[in-house]
Design brief:
The protein has helices at residues 52-60, 80-89, 117-122, and strands at residues 46-49, 75-78, 100-101. With 155 residues, it is of the alpha+beta class. It is globular, with a radius of gyration of 14 Å.
Length: 155
């Protein structure tokens, strides 16, 4: 059981962490939030939308996310280190090996685990890249057929 209620976790903007996905139910604690607590040794803090290229990349590193039913378009809380590896392997800002990130649903702990705010912003999902996020639920998903609802602020 989590030792820290989800409403106490903050996102990378130091605001309450947004709900990311309930279908599939994501997060280390499987509560829809990319929140991190002391039990989460993999730091599942990065709120990203899976791509075929990232799924292939992750499987090549020993973590086959397809084996648990995930597919391109699923919203999933990613291990910070794996997302950072994908950024380092990317051949530019538009390389689909790096999942697009929802900053308002990404736990602030990603920033203390080797990921910079600049790299998160470089791969931010629209409208997050433009500084949005407070009304994400009103916007269309960034990937056609994406699994899960839009990230929403919690208060």
């Amino acid at each position: 059981m989590a030792t820290k209620p989800s409403n106490h976790n903050l996102n990378v903007f130091k605001k309450p962490l947004a709900l990311f996905s309930q279908s599939p139910l994501t997060g280390f604690y499987r509560d829809g939030y990319c929140r991190v607590g002391p039990e989460d040794k993999g730091n599942h803090a990065v709120a990203g939308v899976l791509t075929k290229e990232f799924l292939d990349f992750s499987a090549s590193r020993g973590n086959n996310l397809r084996s648990i039913g995930l597919e391109p378009g699923c919203k999933w809380c990613l291990c910070t280190a794996r997302w950072k590896e994908a950024v380092e392997a990317a051949r530019g800002k538009d390389d689909p090996v790096v999942p697009k990130v929802f900053l308002h649903a990404t736990d602030e702990s990603a920033l203390s685990n080797g990921v910079t705010m600049d790299s998160l912003k470089n791969f931010a999902a629209e409208p997050e890249a433009a500084g949005g996020g407070g009304s994400l639920e009103k916007n269309a998903p960034i990937t056609p057929g994406a699994k899960g609802g839009m990230a929403k602020e919690t208060h």
